[in-house]
TrEMBL record:
The keyword Methyltransferase does not apply. It comes from the Eukaryota. The chain crosses the membrane at residues 6-26, 47-66, 78-95, 135-155. Gene3D superfamilies: TspO/MBR protein (1.20.1260.100). This is TSPO protein. Belongs to the TspO/BZRP family. It holds the Pfam family TspO_MBR. Coiled coil: none annotated. InterPro entries: TspO/MBR-related_sf (IPR038330), TspO_MBR (IPR004307). Keywords: Membrane, Transmembrane, Transmembrane helix.
Amino acid sequence: QGRMWAYTVGFTVLPHVGGFLGWFLNRKETPVWYEKLKKPSWCPPRKIFPLAWTVLYTGMGYASYLIWNDLGGCSSKAIIPLGLYGAQLALNWAWPPFFFGAHNLKMALIDILCLDGLVIGTMCSWYRINKVATLLMVPYLGWLAMATCLTIRIWKDNPEQKPGKSE
């Protein structure tokens, strides 16, 4: 019983690790560079993002635990459903370094478009295994849809500086 509790917590906390590292490594760039970007009127306030990601990471982490548990741990049946989940999590964690760290809006856009596809694939692979886990991913997919539209708008409205030009 105690061991299952540890797995539940571990899976639930795991997504937060990359999210926290992404924030920590890019925290100085956010108020400086990000604030100067042209953003659409519907862009959420900056203070909403940490709260939203805390809720979303918790939901997706717990959902991944449900899938892992239902498939009997790291079995051969878990390779595709948890592999898709791991791949989407890696792309999720890669977005802040592309966007905030490298200021590479095009790579951030490519990343989030691939991320969208992997999240949909993850949810499709999870649906027959655990519908609750799949439903826990719905808010994440909704937020990603908004974040994708926001990334597209920021990419379009903020042409990247050509090398050699000062900011």
